[in-house]
Amino acid sequence: MVLRPPVEPMLAQARDTVPAPGALPGELRFQPKFDGYRALVFTVWPAPGPLLLQSRRGSLMQSRFPELVDAAADLPDGLVLDGELIVWAEDQMSFEALQRRAVSDGRTAARLAQEMPAHFIAFDLLQLDGQELLHVPYGERRARLEQLFTDHGLSAPWTLCPETTEVATAHEWLTSWTQVPGVEGLVIRGSSQRYLPGARALYKVRRRDTTEAIIGAITGTVRQPQTLVLGRLDQTGALRPVARSTPLRPDAARDLAQRLTPAGHGHPWEGVRFTTSWGSRTPLDVVLVEPELVAEIMVDTAQERGSWRHPVRFARLRWDVAVSDVPPFNAGAEPASG
């Protein structure tokens, strides 16, 4: 069977910590988790062009990334790669630049390809020389992927994802590599795993840091809060939204219900439109509260324009930290002073 798009990628389930040996079939293999777009590359004939680039949801987007199409000559026919699409801008990985690239086309796409080039980080091999490899254990697929890069001398925009079997090295990546913009954590695979399209059969561990933000609104009601909408003060003293929390634990919700105060007139977020998630257009109904409580939150590294893209976790209230002591807008995961 020859693979043709759309092919559902194999997915990962979130874990809080690095799993112990035996958690997945075979030896554990650790890779950095990059903050980009999941994508599959096809050089399958016959095809309308030398390369097809499929998004996680199955749409074709090769016209948005002409530099990858131009580099298709470096790849053999009958190939399917699974990996992460990233974009470099100002000498670092930029999710915002990637989003801009993903909606460009024509002359704009060609210009942006020069200004903010894309790279494809390959971390799995699904087909080689027209032979489908979904049933082949991951360890063997990885060996063939490494050999592919060696045999064809592949270089930018094609990149082989780093990998280690050493737990100590994986922990080092989780703490040090995630300080680089665009690296979120780890993806863990088992060397004996087959490729299971659409299944959440891998593990992912994001680096999480503790910091503070101001509770400016909630979902639910003041007496039964469900999630928090959090903010930080910018240089002008304006409260800027920075994150939404995951659903509150029942004990935390009960405690907050006794301490939240409904907002009076003049709340800084009056008239502000909130959405259900970062980048979404679906409106979110919120209840404004007096921005007087400081929350300690656990955040990952995916931040854009001063806001965290993924939901944060509420840890506790910080009675020892004043609103004025909370790190300012755009300060990232820097903890409050004191």
UniProtKB/TrEMBL annotation:
Protein name (record): ATP-dependent DNA ligase
Catalysed reaction equations from the record: ATP + (deoxyribonucleotide)n-3'-hydroxyl + 5'-phospho-(deoxyribonucleotide)m = (deoxyribonucleotide)n+m + AMP + diphosphate
Similarity annotation: Belongs to the ATP-dependent DNA ligase family.
GO MF annotation list: ligase activity
Ranges for domain ATP-dependent DNA ligase family profile: 111-216
Coiled-coil residue windows: none
Assigned keywords, A-Z: Ligase
Origin: domain of life: Bacteria
Any Pfam family hit: DNA_ligase_A_M
